[in-house]
Amino acid sequence: MTDASDRVRPQRIRITKLQETQVSDLVALEKACTAMYHDLGFDAAEVPPRTWNDIANLPRHHNVFVAEADHEVAGYLAWRDESPGVAYLEELSVHPQFQRFGVGTRLLQKFEEDALGCGLNDAIARMFEKATWAQGFYAHHGYTQLGEQASRKVLAWREERSGGRPLTRPGEVLIWKSFRAQ
User: Fold this and answer.
1) pLDDT, tens digit, for every residue of 121-178?
2) What is the enclosing helix (H) or strand (E) of 10?
3) Residue 6, in any domain of the structure
4) The model's pTM
5) Per the domain annotation, does 22 fall within a domain?
6) In angstroms, rounded to a whole number, what is the distance separating the alpha carbons of residues 162 and 137?
7) Number of domains composing the chain
8) Domain region containing 29
9) Residue 151's domain is classified under what CATH number?
10) Are strands 72-82 and 63-69 parallel, antiparallel or unpaired?
11) What distance in Å separates the CA atoms of residue 127 and residue 123, rounded to the nearest whole number?
12) Which terms does the record give in the GO molecular function aspect (predicted)?
């Protein structure tokens, strides 16, 4: 992550749906974000950056939101509705230059509002255990490792997806959150 003293907190963060004019900037963002994982020892095969086509095609199966910080692409999030009615968070990336300035939080809030608007009460995501920044971020926002304490729909999702096989790669965990009032 970039040293905070080298960065300037944005005055304005705006969340929009993905626009074609943002795709090239998101490709650059992907390279910067995946470099953080490569610095932890992951190789490009384990954590490849999405290409222009990958990002441009995300809206075919996902709701995609882009964060702009002072008119500069700063992050994005992609999610989809999966059976039996859970919100699967496919991607949440914030450029290292804009991390710890609320960009990820704003994207996550937009995701949760959108999922609730679709009648979904639970979210699931994958996270690498070595990514301590992700662990702290998700824990701060109420996400916990998926276990037997999860909601019935989340457990049903796990059962549907697994077919008796592991759902994660080595070093990866599933996390979840309920949007219902606690």
Assistant:
1) 999 999 999 899 999 999 999 999 999 999 999 999 999 999 878 899 888 999 999 9
2) none
3) no
4) 0.92
5) yes
6) 26
7) 1
8) 12-178
9) 3.40.630.30
10) antiparallel
11) 13
12) acyltransferase activity, transferring groups other than amino-acyl groups
